[in-house]
Design goal:
With 507 residues, the chain is an alpha+beta fold. The protein has three domains: 194 residues, YVTN repeat-like/Quinoprotein amine dehydrogenase (Methylamine Dehydrogenase, Chain H, 7 Propeller); 134 residues, Sandwich (Immunoglobulin-like); 142 residues. 23% of the residues lie in helices and 27% in strands.
Length: 507
Amino acid sequence: MHDLTKNKKENMGPGGGPITNEGAGGEVYHTIYYIAESPHSKDVIYAGADDGLVHITTDGGKSWNNISPELEEGMINSIDVSPHDPATVYIAYNRYKFDDFKPYILKSSDYGNSWKMLGTGIEENSFVRVVREDIEKEGLLYAGTERGIYMSTDAGASWHKWQRNLPIVPITDLVVHGNDLVVATQGRSFWILDDLSPLREYSEEMRSKNVHMFDVEDSHKVLRSAMRRQGPMGKNPYYGTEVKFFLRDIDEEDSTVLKVEFMSEDMNLLRSYSSDNELKQNKIDLKEGFHTLRWGGGVEGFELPKGVMPPRGSQGFIESFSVVPGKYNVKLSYGDYEKISSFEILPDPRNEIDESHFAKKSELMKDIHDDISDIYSSLKKMQSARDQLDDLESRLSDEKFSKILELSKSTVKLIDDTELKLISPKQKTFQDVINFRNQLDAQFLDLLSKVDGNVPPITSGELTRYNDLKSDWLKIKTGYDQVVSNIQDINTMLIESSVPFISRGGE
């Protein structure tokens, strides 16, 4: 048996005054308060007591050595063995029960044979409860104090307050879990800082850079229906890919374009954002500071033809489907700076789905996407042709142009009839579908949304529905093909009849 405390009997009896005993037990101590096993060896264990003693065993507890720092009596609140160096250990030491609220952080680089006091930069009244070293980057430390959280990038030589949106609250424990920092507070629940990549990647070299994109963290593919929450619950992290970067010394007169491009594993472009994009969905604000660009996995969408009611606030742009789990790349370019970061979108761990099912789902969504794109492209061409034919008819009144006018009018009617089979231009609000039914484009879009939002494998119903819509489109497309043929004939007739391209004003 080894007593690892001071074992002062006078501190282990009843507390309080001579008349009434104080039953809370605040004055009773000499207890082992914290035990930490080294992640490098199961035989190396540290034990800290609430009276300031620290012991170490290197033989799995058979023998113990007193390695206590030479400080006034206080509490060993937590011990953290460095995940990078077996000989390095950090201790959060506090004396608030002795009315001393100063921050005490101790570090040893030789298994506790000598100690160094840290804590420069921490507020004087913020006594320390816990210190943790980052599991990926050596020397990156996090400290939980009575009045918030601090961080150090130089192994504790200096500290910086790192509160962000965290309340000013006692931090009772910290855990680095994967790429996140989990924070336990006293009275304000658990908090999680998602994605420590910028901290781990940051270096002194970056102080002189005007632009830098940090490595992108992997994420999980989670369906939108699984993101819903109700009641007073904490806010979940963003379900998607986040690109973090900073900009410095931005010249407002500079025309340099900032571009962020998401690409497949083989570098095929999927979605592009830029500072000069006219669509707000794809525009990046070019301003100084730290930026986070969020990508939900959506590929380039559709710019809508005239007559298609756009979703509210979409500026005539509809999002397309989102990519399936797999490996992807993102490239940020700005002037001479260019960086590509590879990342992975992982499947929802709650579902066991074979990769082949994701491949088939991706193939079906791409087929639907291409058909919608084909519909809108064909419709835009027909609408443009109709505008030009209307202008042409307004200029041709001579009897010798009767054949041209006749073919032009029949072509305009064919465009009108074909358009009404593809879209519903009378829909102006979301409730108009009651009176003016959705046409082929909306049915394709609905199917795309259903396939995109469902867990694989794709169903026979989805495939059957796609084949039916595809068949409908091929039939309707014969009208488009006839319009193209008519336009070619009209152009030939115009040349043969020497119709002027530009009419003389006033005639």
